[in-house]
């Protein structure tokens, strides 16, 4: 088990040693930061060291794409908190720009209300298949993928060690999900201050910004995870028409067909937000200054606008905006983005 940086952790959950198929990998103590809530998920996919390491190998392997040139990390760079820094990524097999901004990946063990910007996947195990098979992403034939993975001795042994089974697509998804759940980010300047780590402190500007974030933002960016993992209309648009794009701009409505969900998108975490520009599902804003200004005076009213947001904005002063941004920078976890032992590309021979 690993402990990230100097932040104190407790063993809050021990994943069971057997899953629903009777597989019995070595049990793995799921380490949870002591100031985080306990994660709630049940996918029949208990984590193991072997499964997480196998998932890490797969995450960085170009074999997962049809042209053997693209990996999951092509759109989820660990240096950017597993985002890609682009408005709409075009790293996929077709080189066609995507219609939504690639989300950051961390603290996903707590994401139990659906994944993607509209909640279109129930859990990480099912989510895997969308980028793997999408024409504009990895465009992989799943049968061909299994053939390719079986040609690598390390994968043949790795699947046996992790799942006591030959290589199969279900366990590809399970291994990738286990690795992504292990991406815990909780060692920012804020965390060290929050846990009263010796020598940790925030400046007066950062503390004032923290107060403002609690007052203005924590209706949606709630608690220590700085997200409720839910879906909200945050006043970006008033028109959600979507001709020819399969509902991609309609938000959560695309999944639920509930008119009350028009324009609602998933709340991203504020953690590592200084690393994950551009911002919003459509990457509309390039800087944190633009984001804060939107909430200050740029909110657009509509029927489904979140009631926590004033239609005329929060009317933040220039000083208050600077203070909020100063605090947001304290949420950057430099240990997380540089953890060679657990999160960065593994060293293994193809």
UniProtKB/TrEMBL annotation:
Q: What binding details are noted for the cofactor?
A: Binds 2 heme groups.
Localization of this protein: Periplasm
Location, primary (coarse class): periplasm
Q: Which organism is it from?
A: Dyadobacter luteus
Question: Cellular component per GO?
Answer: periplasmic space
The protein's matches in SUPFAM superfamilies, at most eight in alphabetical order, are given as:
Cytochrome c
Pfam hit, one: CCP_MauG
Every Cytochrome c domain range: 204-332
For this UniProt record, the keywords arranged alphabetically read as follows: Heme, Iron, Metal-binding, Oxidoreductase, Periplasm, Peroxidase, Signal
**What's the name of the protein?**
Cytochrome-c peroxidase
PTM per Swiss-Prot/TrEMBL: Binds 2 heme groups per subunit.
Q: Where does heme c 1 bind?
A: 72, 75-76
Cofactor(s) needed: heme
Q: Which domain of life is it from?
A: Bacteria
> Which residues of the sequence carry a binding annotation for heme c 2?
217, 220-221
């Amino acid at each position: 088990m690993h402990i990230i940086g100097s932040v104190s952790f407790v063993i809050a959950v021990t994943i069971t040693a057997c899953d629903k198929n009777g597989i019995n990998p070595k049990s793995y103590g799921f380490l949870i930061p002591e100031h985080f809530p306990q994660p709630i998920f049940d996918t029949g996919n208990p984590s193991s060291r072997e499964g997480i390491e196998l998932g890490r190998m797969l995450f960085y392997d170009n074999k997962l794409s049809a042209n053997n040139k693209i990996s999951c990390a092509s759109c989820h760079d660990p240096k950017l908190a597993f985002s890609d820094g682009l408005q709409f990524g075009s790293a996929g097999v077709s080189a066609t720009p995507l219609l939504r901004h690639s989300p950051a990946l961390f603290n996903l063990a707590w994401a139990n209300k659906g994944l993607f910007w509209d909640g279109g996947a129930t859990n990480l195990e099912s989510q895997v298949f969308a980028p793997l098979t999408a024409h504009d992403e990895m465009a992989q034939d799943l049968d061909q993928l299994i053939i390719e993975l079986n040609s690598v001795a390390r994968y043949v042994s790795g699947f046996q060690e992790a799942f006591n089974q030959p290589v199969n697509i279900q366990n590809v998804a399970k291994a990738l999900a286990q690795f992504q759940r292990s991406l815990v980010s909780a060692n920012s300047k804020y965390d060290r201050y929050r846990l009263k780590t010796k020598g940790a402190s925030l400046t007066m500007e950062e503390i004032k910004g923290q107060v403002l974030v609690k007052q203005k933002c924590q209706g949606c960016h709630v608690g220590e995870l700085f997200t409720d993992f839910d879906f909200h209309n945050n006043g970006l648009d008033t028109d959600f028409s979507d001709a020819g794009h399969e509902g991609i701009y309609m938000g959560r409505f695309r999944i639920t067909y509930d008119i009350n969900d028009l324009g609602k998108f998933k709340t991203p975490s504020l953690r590592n937000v200084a690393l994950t520009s551009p911002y919003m599902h459509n990457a509309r804003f390039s800087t944190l200054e633009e984001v804060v200004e939107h909430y200050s005076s740029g909110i657009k009213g509509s029927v489904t606008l979140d009631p926590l947001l004033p239609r005329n904005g929060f009317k933040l002063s220039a000083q208050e905006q600077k203070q909020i941004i100063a605090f947001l920078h304290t949420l950057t976890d430099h240990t997380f983005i540089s953890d060679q032992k657990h999160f960065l590309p593994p060293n293994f021979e193809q």
